[in-house]
Amino acid sequence: MLSKKTKYGIKALSFIAKQPEGKPVQTAEISRTQNISQKFLESILLELRKSGFLGSKKGKGGGYYLIKEPEEIKMTAVIRILEGPIAMVPCVSLNYYEKCRDCVSEETCSVHALMIQVRDSTLKVLGENTLADIAVK
Amino acid sequence: MLSKKTKYGIKALSFIAKQPEGKPVQTAEISRTQNISQKFLESILLELRKSGFLGSKKGKGGGYYLIKEPEEIKMTAVIRILEGPIAMVPCVSLNYYEKCRDCVSEETCSVHALMIQVRDSTLKVLGENTLADIAVK
DNA sequence: CTTATAACCTAGTAGTTCTATAGGTTAATA
DNA sequence: TATTAACCTATAGAACTACTAGGTTATAAG
Q: pTM for the complete prediction?
C-alpha cells in the first residue's frame, strides 16, 4: 500500500506541473484544492525540495516550483524518494537491497523469484510514466 | 512492502507443495527448515486452512497438506488472503475497493490513473504464476 | 486406556510506522 | 516595518507488525 505521504506528494507534484512554467505555488493553495492537511503537506514538499525535485521561494508570491521539466521526472524517482523501495521484498530491491535473514539462498527462494517478476513489471510502468504523463487533466 | 506474514506464508505453501502428494507436513518441520518462528507460523497456516488452501490432520503423523493442486492455486489468491489488496491504493482495488476521502473525482486523479496501470501489471504477473510455478526448486 | 503428538485457540505486548499537529524561526516582498 | 510563506524541530495518538505465552482439543501409537 502507498502511504498517504506518497499519494499527497504525487498529487502535489502533479498540481505544480500544471501551473504556467516556473510560477511558484503556495502550500496553502495545494492544501486547499487537494484536500491535504497543510502542515503535513509542508513537510512533504520540503522533502521534495531537498531531494531535488522542487525549488522554493520565500515571502509573498513565493511557493514551490518544478526544477526540471515534467517530462524528465520519472515516477520511479518520485516514489523511491517518498515511499522508499519499489520492490516488495528488500532482497529484490535494486536501490534498497537487503539480504533476508531467514533465507539460505536467494536462488532457491520461491518468494524471491516471484517478487523479481513483480518488481520488473512495476518498474516498467513507473519508468515509462513521467510527471508529464500523469499531470494531464 | 510484503509483510513477513505473507512472505512466510508463501514459503510455507511452497514447501508443502514440494512434498509427495497429500503427505501432511508439520509446522515444526517448516519452521525449522525455513527459519520461521513456529508460533507465528502456526497462526499463518491456520489462516491458510480457514481460507481453504490447506487441510489439516491432528496427532502424530499429522500436519498440513494442500487441498487443491498447486497448478490451481494462483498467487493472486494467496496474496489477497495473507496481505490484503494487491493494489497500491484502495481506490483502484478490485477486491477491497474504497473511495478516497480527499479526491473529488477519480477520473481526474493523477495517482488513480497511474496506480491502475501498476495494479494491472502486478495482477498479470501474480495471475500467471501458480504455486506450481514458484515451488520448483 | 494412556501417553505423546500436533493442530487449534485466545489473548497480549513490545516495537515500529504512519499521519499528522504544535509552535515556532528565517527570508523575501510590499 | 509588516506581511507573507517557506523552513525547522519536536511530539503524540493511532494503527499495524511480528511475534510470544499459555493453554485446549483431537488423533495415533503403544
A: 0.94
